Amino acid sequence: MVEVEKFIEKSVSEIDEEIDGDAMIALSGGVDSSVCAELAYRAIGDKLYPVFVDTGLMRKGEVAQIKETFSHMNLRVVEARDRFVGELEGVVDPEEKRHVVGREFIRIFEEVAREFDIEYLIQGTIYPDKIESEGGIKSHHNVGGLPERIDFKSIVEPVEDLYKDEVREVGRALELPETITERMPFPGPGLGVRIIGEVNEEKLSVVREANAVVEEEIMDLEPWQAFAALLSRGTGVKGDKRIHGWIIAIRAVESRDGMTARAMDVPMERLKKIGQRITREIDEVSRVVYDVTDKPPGTIEYE
Ligand code: XMP
Fold first, then answer.
1. How many CB atoms lie within 10 A of CB 194?
2. Please, which residues bridge with residue 54 across strands?
């Protein structure tokens, strides 16, 4: 987009015109909501309430990064780790898991909107989301149910006509950090869908650390997505002891839009290095496997 600066200028003035009161935006850590927050902040300043929920399901370092990036704004961080992990206790069905996470998000945003009497909602919907939702494929938005619960005066979607790469470009022009503009897709239910079965603090901590190793060691190969998932338990031997530790899967895929994907041809040497690091650095892990499944028949995420 040659006209990034023009887009920014136009968008900021449109938001300013459309919003006459306090507005809320749910930050996910992703590029779409981040760009919208920055555009809206330029338009309405402290009348913008960016809300970020620390679900405990985010990647290593991500919460601190978000707090820092948006520290110049009237940012509300809702510490909800116990709430999410508590609600997820005993939940093993993948759909139920997603439902629980989505419901908690909505409840929290509803609480904030009511507490501050917020009249406007800003959403980071992008063009492909609109097409997919209209086609009934899937709703990407964790706050998609919010407008049904609260009668907002209006819902503003500043990047609704843009494709992802255009949003990234706007993000760069807004000088958002690279960790945001170049961020891989990350599901709303976060690490929760990268743990098979029940989610708890121990599994979250293991998968979060393993994921950090995968990202450190693989991102130069430029995958569409690369991450760690926690599968189940398996026997291993560490030192002179047999352990019944966790099995971690490494997933790295190439894709254009996430609708289909190919398991990446990561060199064996690299995979072994990642496996060695994960088993050495995380006591509770006994084994590391590489997922060779394309989509279809697999999905990118595990649940
Ligand atoms: P699957 O696992 O269905 O994922 O092959 C396709 C793409 O969508 C992402 N994904 C999600 N994104 N909320 C999101 O915002 C979700 O609940 C969700 N589930 C999957 C996934 O990371 C991949 O890029």
1. 29
2. 79
